[in-house]
Design goal:
heterodimer; A: alpha/beta; Amidase signature (AS) enzymes; 11-stranded mixed β-sheet; 11 strands; B: about 90 residues; mainly alpha; Histone, subunit A; 2 strands; flat
């Protein structure tokens, strides 16, 4: 397969090739394994490559195709972010704490993909425990952006976004707590979707902030996103926040006629000082939607300014509780010192096992939850969360969806953003969707300074189909998603 | 807001993370900056507003009390830094 053919290969196209026997799953898997071998030393999008397991799965997939029992993802090579548990395969969360951790069970999304016959090529790099916006917080090396290897791929799903962009897999799954699927998708010029909270099971996803975390697809186009979402969504009794009775078929509901739909432009998402190139591309996207017959309305979400602060109380608070489990007893790194005192032992283990950003977030959360500060921070943030949700509900009475930039900037240089608060500001446009549990997607909409720009669409809970339809229609009428990076190896 | 070094020491203790004096000093500055930003929430009027814990309404989930197959004990224990027979080894607590 030529580089051009590989660039343009989507899940949809690969399915046709597999079903018509133009290629076998084993051949396709080998093409991707070779590609990983060639470019991953430059991108570092993988923490673990599962060559043997992938080839075994490919043999099984080829047999299923031979007897005509294939499903939409049978034989399709993919990657999973390394915070999704895979039985018998290392799952590190890009942390020293879990460097040698081998789960004894699969997360639900892996189970679902494996039962469809998808091929696992390996595990994608991320910011440690998914805390970060640049993948520079990985205990292993940072991932590089395929568009410019001196720049970050975004984060925390930087590995998955870079892997899809660099053709190191046909799709990947990311997790999104405050923008961790959408922001890296925007930075790497690919499609990243965070479904409605509860649409995809979180069972076996190593927890960061349980009320915000959601798994979703990172793909080359919107149709592929719908194919993957069909496979991974649905009720799971193992996740108590999983929504019952979801029986949406995102593929057969995918439309390209969106004429008459209403799109809101929230003015708070276009602040002064935003990068001009980003602003310009997003305004062009709005014009494109007009051409497609969509009515554009200016709307206001006045409490948007509080979202970042609310997020940085709720997410670290939940993280402080979730990460209490790492005590060096049941799994993971242990200080192995001969300390008599159990607390001394736990404190030393956590000192050595966690990176700086993880420690910082645990400390923020612990403080926000501590006696005397709980009402002023955690409870107050939860109350503003109610206001933010209600503001969205009110706006969605008048429009079908909202359109905003995904990120205020294009990909920045590795090592450029050092101040933690500056780094947090990256997710200012993506966090509100997590706070309110909304479905949201980032799709390519332009180029600024030679780097991809992403536009974000959000709709009301359970309207994942609306978001996909709008994104699909836009994509079909533009060619931004066809632009590919040339990786200088 | 201002955070004292003693407060940061207490947060580290509650977080069960050991820190050097240098790390505590840096963390004090970083936390102070972050909380100076976070403090914007105090301006929001939340009188009579109920808190939201989850964006979806949660019901308690029950299942019948039936014995199910356990996770494979040997596999689970493989990840423990110290184990003995079918148990995790912990330090003396009392």
């Amino acid at each position: 397969m030529s580089q051009d053919e590989l660039n343009n290969l989507t899940i949809h196209e690969a399915r046709k090739m597999l079903d018509s026997r133009k290629i076998s799953s084993k051949e396709l898997t080998n093409i991707f394994l070779e590609r990983i071998q060639k470019v991953d030393q430059s991108t570092n999008a993988y923490i673990t490559v599962t060559t043997e397991f992938a080839l075994q799965q490919a043999d099984i997939a080829d047999e299923k195709i031979r007897i005509g029992e294939q499903k939409p993802l049978t034989g399709i090579p993919m990657q999973l972010k390394d915070n999704m548990s895979t039985a018998g395969i290392k799952t590190t969360c890009a942390s020293k704490m879990l460097e040698n951790y081998i789960p004894s069970y699969n997360c639900t999304v892996a189970d679902r993909l494996f039962s469809e016959g998808a091929i696992l090529l390996g595990k994608g790099n991320l910011d440690e425990f998914a805390m970060g916006s640049s993948t520079e917080n990985s205990y292993y090396a940072s991932t590089a952006n395929p568009w410019d290897l001196k720049r970050v791929p975004g984060g925390s799903s930087g590995g998955p976004a870079a892997a899809v962009s660099a053709d190191e897999c046909l799709f990947s799954l990311g997790s999104d707590t405050g923008g961790s699927i959408r922001q890296p998708a925007a930075f790497c010029g690919v499609v990243g979707m965070k479904p409605t909270y509860g649409v995809v099971s979180r069972f076996g996803l190593i927890a960061f902030a349980s009320s915000l975390d959601q798994i979703g697809p990172i793909t080359k186009n919107v149709q592929d996103s719908a194919i993957v979402l069909n496979a991974i969504s649905g009720y799971d009794p193992k996740d108590s926040t999983s929504i019952k009775n979801i029986s949406q078929d995102y593929i057969s509901n995918l439309k390209s006629n969106i004429s008459g739909m209403k799109l809101g432009v929230p003015k708070e998402y276009f602040p002064d000082g935003m990068e001009e190139g980003v602003k310009k591309s997003v305004f062009q996207a709005i014009e494109q939607f007009k051409k497609l017959g969509v009515e554009i309305k200016e709307v206001s979400l006045p409490h948007t300014d509080y979202a970042l602060a609310v997020y940085y109380i709720i997410a670290p608070s939940e993280a402080a509780a979730n990460l209490a489990r790492y005590d060096g007893v049941k799994y993971g790194f242990s200080s192995k010192g001969d300390l008599e005192d159990i607390f001394d032992d736990i404190e030393t283990t956590r000192q050595g096992g966690f990176g700086d950003e993880v420690k910082r977030r645990i400390m923020i959360g612990t403080y926000a939850l501590s006696a005397g500060y709980y009402d002023a921070y955690y409870l107050k943030a939860q109350k503003i969360r109610t206001i933010i949700r209600e503001e969205f509900n009110e706006v969605f009475k008048n429009v079908d969806a909202l359109i905003t930039p995904t990120s205020p900037t294009v990909a920045f240089k590795l090592g450029e953003v050092i101040d933690p608060l500056q780094m947090y500001l990256n997710d200012v446009f993506t966090q509100p969707a997590n706070i309110a549990g909304l479905p949201s997607i980032s799709i390519p909409c332009g180029i600024s300074e030679g780097l991809p720009v992403g536009v974000q669409l959000m709709s009301s809970p359970m309207n994942d189909g609306v978001v996909l339809n709008l994104a699909n229609a836009f994509e079909q009428s533009t060619d931004w998603h066809d632009l590919k990076p040339e990786i200088s190896i | 807001m201002g955070l004292s070094l003693d407060q940061v020491k207490k947060i580290a203790k509650l977080s069960r993370i050991k820190m050097t004096d240098e790390q505590l000093k840096n963390m004090r500055i970083e936390l102070e900056n972050i909380f100076n930003h976070i403090d914007v929430i105090q301006k929001a009027d939340t009188e009579k507003i109920e808190p939201t814990g989850h964006s979806v309404n949660l019901d308690s989930v029950f299942r019948n009390d039936v014995v199910e197959k356990s996770a494979p004990v040997k596999e689970v224990l493989k990840n423990a830094p110290k184990q003995e027979d079918d148990f995790f080894t912990v330090r003396k607590i009392i």
